[in-house]
User: What shape does this take?
Amino acid sequence: MALFCCSRLANGSMLGNLAKFRSSLGTVSYAQAASVPKITFKKFEPPQVEHIDIRNERLKRPLSPHLTIYKFQLTSVLSITHRTAGIILSGYATALGIGALVLPNDVSHYISMIESMNLSPVTIFLAKVAIAAPFGYHFANGIRHLYWDTAKGLTIKEVYYTGYAMLAATAAITLFIAAL
Assistant: This one.
């Protein structure tokens, strides 16, 4: 096979075209070579460091819009607050754990200190609501996410419906825990 291919190349026009190309290279005149521009070398200068905002301003590029142009949606707000509630609960657990290790007295001592402040029942109830709300929200939204894990309730209409239902459940759970 290789012998056949080599014999075709030798007889074909490919080698003939190469011979013509080689002969045309040898006939370059001086006038053609003189039309080539001369190369000048410049000293290398590192590029100037320019902040992207300044470069965009210099090039008159518009500033891209940010979150301020978007309308808040229930889904995005609930997602952000779910994460925030989780962070708050982590802070509660960390503070209670470190407090149990570091503080000299037990919990009953600190409860009696709060009772000795003679706070109004409304103030105590609002403090309980502030403490219970992240738990109630995170718990109710966690159940909603578990429902989604079954691949149900994922249409936009159902997502909004479960979002409002979760907010109602959050209020109920928070009020129940604060009433204890």
Summary: The helical segments are 2-11, 13-25, 30-34, 52-58, 74-102, 107-116, 121-148, 156-179. The radius of gyration is 39 Å.
